[in-house]
Amino acid sequence: MEILDGKKISNQIKDEIAVEVAQMKERGEKVPHLAAVLVGNDGASLTYVGSKVRSCKKIGFESTLIHLPEDTTEEALLKQVADLNANPDIDGYIVQLPLPKHIDEQKVLLAVDPDKDVDGFHPTNFGKMALDMESFIPATPFGIMELLRRYNVETSGKHTVVIGRSHIVGRPISILMSQKGQAADSTVTLTHSRTKDLKALTLQADIVVSALGVPNFLKEDMVKEGVTIIDVGITRVPDDTHEKGYYITGDVDFENVSKKASYITPVPGGVGPMTIAMLLQNTLLARERHKSKQA
Predict the structure, then answer these.
(1) pLDDT in tens, 192-229
(2) Is there a contact between 193 and 186 (Cβ–Cβ < 8 Å)?
């Protein structure tokens, strides 16, 4: 069994980006600038955005955090999005989800300029990705693909079962892994809450990608020997015995499933760090695109 170490690989990617940024500075070029919009004080969102800002500083990116109060109106948020679209200094930005319930997420995401949509959520980018065209790939699926590539996990002709059909992870990873290329060429089954006899499908799977958000959902008796496990789930489970009052766990019963797996991602330290690394990769790509347009 080999651990797919997202923390290690994400640091490698950040180091590679840092070299490119240093070369940009030497040439007197503008370095990439990533902005993040955060509405409210959701604990997980604050942690995630804080990590993005620190990562930007580490690799030499410029970064801007726009922290708006919980009661920010939809109109005010859309005005902020329009300002970021129009700001030539910003190469890419993200609107951190979830948004407060009084704001229409779809309306906000549709307002983001596709050329600055480094989260890869805009329908223009999602459609291009589905058609195998160059686009911003959603950061979490992008990170999964990069992990599989860098560990040379064989995916060609393999049966991949994806658990969960969200637009952020499940659906895009099912598209990417069925396409041609490295870490792809897989036969993909996309499962969800209405899927019948999920266990029969996961027992057939060579690769399982679980993006459900249900702690320890995938058990040892649901997978076969030699399976590759990608655990995207990340849940804070309340626990008074822990210093923080909670512990973080994934969708997979790691202790027992890892005994049967050939490759497995840990939680934390697997897919999570890769998401941030690929967001930075998308921002670098956005900077290069803007530079070529200006040339």
Answers:
(1) 999 999 999 999 999 999 999 999 999 999 999 999 99
(2) no
Burial of 152 from C-beta contacts in 10 A (0-12 / 13-18 / 19+): exposed
Is 253 annotated as catalytic?
no
Q: Which two tokens stand for residue 269?
A: 């330290």
pTM for this entry: 0.94
User: CB atoms < 10 A from the CB of 11, how many?
Assistant: 15
3-class SS of residue 32: coil
Fold of 28-113: Rossmann fold (3.40.50)
52 is catalytic: yes
Q: Is 294 a catalytic residue?
A: no
Say which of 5, 14, 96, 117 is annotated catalytic: 96
Q: What is the dihedral of CA 237, 14, 207, 157, to 10 degrees?
A: 160
The correct answer on CATH 3.60.40.10 for the domain covering 139-273 is no
Which whole number is the average pLDDT over 155-168? Answer: 97
